[in-house]
Amino acid sequence: MQDIQNEKDNRDIHIDEVGLRDIVLPLYISDKAKKRQLVVATITMNVSLSKEHKGIHASRFIEVI
Length: 65
Hints:
By secondary structure, the protein is mainly beta. It has 1 helix and 2 strands. The chain has one helix at 58-64; strands at 15-30, 36-49.
């Protein structure tokens, strides 16, 4: 199978913003009393994409969260 992601991109296009939006995830946060609270977060994550790159690894955004 051809690895398109690692090939040179000849289009010479910079993208200001690319990413994921409206990701709904349950998360635990600590309150002032250091107790865990379950919350539901709606998260948007974006990066700029230089003309030298073809894409992002969106699955890594979730890992960062």
